[in-house]
Amino acid sequence: MDPRSLTPALRVLRLCLHLLTAGLLALVVVRAATGRSDEPAGAVVAVAVVMGGVYAAGSLVPAVRGARTGAAVWLAALGTVWAVLLVLSPDALWLAFPLYFLLLHLLPARWAVPAVVLAAGAAIASYVGHDGAVNPGAFIGPLLGAAVAVATVLGYQALYRESERRRRLIEELIATRAELADAERAAGTLAERERLAREIHDTLAQGLSSIQLLLRAAQRDLPGDSPAAAHIEQARAAAQDNLAEARRFVRALTPPDLAHGSLAGALERLCATAPGLTARCTVSGTPLELPTPYEVALLRIAQSALGNTVRHAHARRAEITLSFMETSVALDVVDDGDGFDPERAVSGDGGFGLPAMRARVRELGGTFTVESAPGRGTAVAVTLPVPVGGDA
Question: Where on the phi/psi map is residue 348: left (φ > 0), alpha (ψ -120 to 50), or beta?
Fold first, then answer.
């Protein structure tokens, strides 16, 4: 584990493990030098020093902390030196306890637990070999220490995994909240653009168009060479210029999906980018140039309906059909998904955005219907009357 990623608590535990190992090695050396006369004190001290050096090297070499292979090699070297020390001194069995934690921390669980059992067996064999007697204490100490080490390390690892899972979840929630905030800002901006475009089209542009028609009618009733006719012609030209400017404003405020193409093209792009299902767009009839509010309403309804299909319906296929007729334009969005009860959605229990779609259609004097049932898919149908005079 990278030292930079250690928490203060883990740094303290790691330091305690180092101190425990150093203290136990010192105990082995002191007992060999002052205790048993039958121990080869020089050999014990030499092997203990070698073990301390191997341990220190493993703590300092990055390859041991960062790679499983390096850790396994280091543990094998440390275990080999410890086994030699076990043969020379019975006091070396106490070093099994820090070794348990090293094995469990650096090796995968499927290797670490058998390695701990092997280390406990070596400690027991050393005790029995040096003491010459078999008693419960020879087994209880090493086995109990191994059990405590396994429970402690595996429990900590489980808590660490849960903590990491919660941390990732919190990060995802924060990222999602930021995305939602961006989406809300973008939706607010688009809604305001649509509102301004609709207001300009329905008030200023329509008013200028009416003024132009009235001026044209007045011009026909006056002699062509009269000063009043000349003034009316100037007024009509100014109204025409301002009407063209108003329409440019409306086009500039059009949603990006419609700014560089037709409604049919925007619907085709919507189908091509629908995730998780096969969506197809079909256009029938002779395409007409629709007023901007009509195109915006039809596109937003298609986006909302297809979005509901992706999020809620678990559908495999969906089809959007745009039909141009002599006096109306129709939009149908059909899927083969789970379906739902339209009455519950209308009452507000479903939350499928149907009231917003219905409100858009109502503003333009059209009709809106939903046909669905649990397990039978969903069909959303919109019909808007084509205004006389096109985009005027």
Answer: left
